[in-house]
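Q&A log
Question type: sequence-to-structure
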Amino acid sequence: MAVNLMCEVLGVSRGGFYTWVTRPPSERIRKDEQLAAQVRQSFLRSDRTYGARRVWHDVLEQGLSCGLHRIERLMREQALRTRPRRRGLPTDRGTQYTSEHFQQLLKEQGIICSMSRAGEVWDNSAMENFFSSLKTERTSRKVYRTRAQARLDVFDYIERFYNSSRRHSKLRYVSPVQFEEARKA
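Response status: OK
Response body:
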């Protein structure tokens, strides 16, 4: 009875409705299912840190072709969201670096401290970017019971992920290892 009423309201025949229900999935739906699996795999392999652009480059590297917006849609449909970067005004002069104790230690070792004004990180922007990635992608969501455990996890992040497989936008979405290999070739 419900099907009859629905077909009447929508102005379609019952036969048309049942043909639509039993029709095999379209080529686009099958392709979306294949892509969705690759998207999820890439996202999980990155420890849930890759956004659509990096996932898209992973998918392209697998030999599948699609556009960035399709990847964005497939990620949205699967509720695959990256951890947002911490936002706020640069403060880029941590108290540990400006502390009297640290400054004295530098002086004793004969090291000249290079520190620009607050918000001006040009002298160490590469390291600022690295530490931002490290905090966002790894350490901010973990609790370490020992210093050794923290050291091992940071080492793992750098050696297993950041240098060897993480896609860097500044390197045209290849890992540092891949970039260096391409330069040598």
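Response note: The mean pLDDT is 88.
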